[in-house]
Amino acid sequence: MIKPVIDPLKAISQFLGRNGVLARELPGYEYREEQLRMAGAVLKNLQDSGILMVEAGTGTGKTLAYLVPALLSNQRVVISTGTKNLQEQIFFKDLPVLQKHFSFKAVMMKGRANYLCWRRFHKFMGQPRLEFIDEGAIVAQLRAWAEQTQTGDREELIELAEGHPVWEKIASNPDLCLSSNCPHSEECFVSALRSRAAVADIIVVNHHLFFADLSIRRLGFGEVIPRYNAVIFDEAHLLEDIITDYFGVTASDKMASELGRDLGSELSGLKKVEHKELAHCAHRIENLSDNFFPGLRRHLETSSAKDEAKKVDFLIDQVPGPLVRSGAELVRELAHAGSILSDKKESQELMGMGQRASKMAADLDFLLRQDEKGYVFSGEFRPR
Known about the structure:
Layout: H1 8-16, H2 21-25, H3 33-48, H4 62-72, E1 77-81, H5 84-99, E2 106-108, H6 118-126, H7 136-148, H8 166-170, H9 189-197, E3 202-206, H10 207-218, E4 230-233, H11 239-247, H12 253-265, H13 272-303, E5 311-313, H14 321-341, H15 348-369, E6 378-380
């Protein structure tokens, strides 16, 4: 274990220098002057609470050039990556190398949709959905994995194909979370992860989670990542699009259809009159969405100068009137569903759906009015 020294830059040389610790321990280690200079700049920036941008070419060894200073700074530092592969490389490969020489706690955090929700899992296992009735092997694998997992991380479930729809039925979902009212709150994987992060020195996240956390803080809804002193962005060239996703306003056919489907599946237990009204709402939302979004897509595709454009300008004054009125109807139906569901205090899930419906109504209305300055409006086409 290397003890703290008076001059942190000297400590960097002890690790990354020509005859440093890593040169002695790692087979084929190559001393890089650029890596040493970068590490020194990162450490100075952490000490001065400044902002630093580094463009490091391939082979610089930038990961160690910011991890060593982060550990020497004695601060809680968030490392944010653009890809899951790099996130896991840092946590499972790079940090363990340094663990031999520093005393620190590290945790890797992913978005909550990557973790199993016990309440939704037990509900699904009690009554598997019809679409999975012929997939007995998948259900058995899920049960076996759930019985032994310590983290609930979907990444462990190698038997389940990427994108398999069954995961959506059992994954943690912020809109459906019952928080402390959940009967499984004490064994919740997401809560346990946050507890570990609260005492960690290094928190490894990805850009999506980092800016999801910032957007939640901005709206005053608490936080996902515990308070930190500094953040280091790796793969920073990906930030622009991700920031736009989290600080922009979005409405999509997928969001509307998922809301209608989820609402339809959660109506059992309501009084007959309430069930009928909400079932009608769910049906109307799905129908209006099926009319409005495909119509908007056809309009944007035909009005685009590029035949194969994936993202085009969306100017509401150029959209045909009937299509605008169809969108306005969808806004009203979403708002109506939100107002009804907001009173269902006996069901946290229905209240959560009410919040989803109200937010989508407000966002779609914003996009259809386009009367706010300082925004750029666009339509984006995706395969499905």
